[in-house]
Amino acid sequence: MRPCSLRALTCALATTLAACEPQSSASIGMLATGKLEAPRLDEVSGIQAAQGTDGAFFVHNDDGEAIVHVIDAAGSDLGAVQITGAENRDWEDITTVPSASGPLLVVADIGDNLARHETLTLYFVAEPLPGSDGRFGGESALHHRIRLTYPDGPRDAESLAWDAAAGRLLIVTKRDKPPRIYGIPLASALASEAAELAFLGETVSFRRPASRDLAVFGERDWPWISQPTGFDISPDGRHAAIISYRSVYLFERAEGESWPDALTRSPLEFEGPPSRKEEAIGYSADGAYLYVTSEGTHAPVYRVRQLLPGADNAAQTTD
To answer: Structurally, how many domains does the chain consist of?
Structure first.
C-alpha cells in the first residue's frame, strides 16, 4: 500500500473521484473506542459533541421516542433526556448552533424514504447539562420548532450540519444523484414557524458502487452504499465530513469559499468502518477527531484523527 500522505495529496489534486483510489479504514488509523452500552440505542443515526460537558456526545435513534441519549467516547451510557413537545417521525441527524442563551441542539426530523411528506421538522432545544451525579436525565422543553418545505418537492435526507461561516443550517439529500444541498439562515429558522428551504447546489458525485462491493454489502444494500447518511462541519469551519454505508468523505473549504462550493470538489475518501451500517458522524468538540457509530444494538464506536485533504496525514493517524 502506498503511503497515506501520497494518497491524500493525489486525492486533493484529483478532478474526479474515479481518479483517486480510496484508502482503507486501517490505513488511516481508525480506532474502535468501545460499543454503545445502552440497549435502547439500536438505530443511531446522529452524533454531536456536547459544548458544555467535556467528553460527552448526544446521539439519537431514527424512530421511537423523542429522546436524546448521551454517551462518552467509548459508548458508555451517560443517560437520556426526553424532549417534550417533539415527535420522532424519522430523526436522522443532530447538530449544535449558538444562541444568546447558550448552545442549542438541533434535531433533524428529515428522513423520508418514499419522498411523500410535504414538510420536514427541525427541533431546537437547549443543550442539556448533567446532574450532580454526572448523569443526564429528565425532560427538556422545546426552545423552538420549524416546519420546512423543499422548493422542488419532498425528498429523503439524513444529513444536517451547522455552517457557522454563513450562519445557516445545511441539509444534504440522500437519494438524489448527485446529492442536493439546501439551507436556511439560522436567524430565519429561529424567527419562523414555517419556511421554505433554499436550494444551494449539488455536491460532487460520490463514487458509485463497484462489483467488489457486492460481496461485502450483499444485494439488498449494495445499490445504496454511496448515499450520504450523515454530515458534520468541523468547529473551526474549515473541514467537513460526509458518511455513507461504505465510505467517509472529507472536504476542505478555502478561505472565503462557501460550503456549497467546497462540496463540489473531489474529497479525500476512505472506506470503512467495517460495521457497514454507519449513519452517524461528528467531530469532537475540539475538532481533532471524528467519531462514527451505526445502527444496531451495542454498535461499535470508532474514532479517527481529523485528516486534512492535501496534508501529510501519515503523521496524524497515531494517537
So the answer is: 1
